[in-house]
Amino acid sequence: MNPIVVVHGGGASSISKDRQERVRQGVAKAATLGYRILQEGGSAVDAVEGAVTILENDPEFNAGCGSVLNTNGDVEMDASIMNGKDLSTGAVSAVRCVANPIKLARLVMEKTPHCFLTSEGAAKFAAEMGIPKIAVEQLITERSKRNLEKEKHGRGGAQKPFSAQNEGTVGAVALDCQGNLAYATSTGGIVNKMVGRVGDSPCVGSGGYADNNIGAISTTGHGESILKVNLARLTLFHIEQGKSVEEAADLSLGYMKSKVRGLGGLILISKTGDWVAKWTSTSMPWAAAKDGKLHAGIDLGEATITDLSLP
Asked: How far, rounded to the nearest angstrom, does the alpha carbon of residue 54 sit from its chain's CA centroid?
């Protein structure tokens, strides 16, 4: 099986020109690292964790460092990961002082009998696993502070479902040489969200899903809408019904838009290695690595293909 990794940097409104190149480089770097892991014999789980870690460490994205802020000006992050080989999964929500929530989610999957830990319990588990606790200030960027002020000032403190400052999530899907699939999704959530709000990203079946018999998917966009339609599992249902990856993505995103007026996007790999990146939001930074080529784009109808330069 030829390995593949696809990443996304969140379904968003149009990305400002001064950020576009940094965002483009960010998703390209994540896809390249994930692909290198696969080329070196790493698992699909290794690849998606590695790719998402790159995006969590990049302040241009709404995950890890760069996460958007809640109504108190604080960071509360969510993440999940899933192994398509045995459907094992790990998720965390409302975590604060951890640099890489996706690493904590993987530890939940591999080191506990549970699927999902939240808030104080997740923090206690992180400490037990030796994950360093960092000051929350290290995760907060000036851009996140500005966006919160804009949101509060522009909305009078009210929450709008999917505003210009809500930049979705980050995520990755991968198919390894053994034919195993995996997904990982991570986010800081929605700007000016209520304390304790949890979106789709840590919820298996909504924020992502992986099953070796079907495919792997990571979603992004308005979390409440994604939760209502179980976007990830809905898309894979269409694959099970014989639809192509393109058709499945269009059907599920179209349903979410018509049924609950939700905008978003997804990246998807089928068990046979077909892949797609689709969105109904204005833009979605994405990159895919396969057969020594790097595919990437941000806006609809835009895609570049370059040779991967791997050491």
From this structure: 12
Both tokens of 168, joined, read 């979705």
Q: Give the residue with greater pLDDT, 233 vs 12.
A: 233
The separation between the first and the last C-alpha atoms of the chain, rounded to the nearest angstrom, is: 21
Question: Tokens 């995006």 correspond to what residue?
Answer: 55
| Annotated active-site residue in 32, 53, 89, 169 | 169
Q: How many CA atoms lie within 13 A of 29 on its CB side?
A: 14
Each residue of 120-134: pLDDT tens digit?
Answer: 999 999 999 999 999
Name the nearest CA neighbour of 220 among 211, 228, 232.
Answer: 232
b/e code 34-44 from CB counts within 10 Å (16+ = b): bbbbbbeebbb
| pTM (predicted TM-score) | 0.95
pLDDT in tens, 131-152: 999 999 999 999 999 999 999 9
Give the residue carrying structure tokens 């209502």: 228
Q: Is 304 a catalytic residue?
A: no
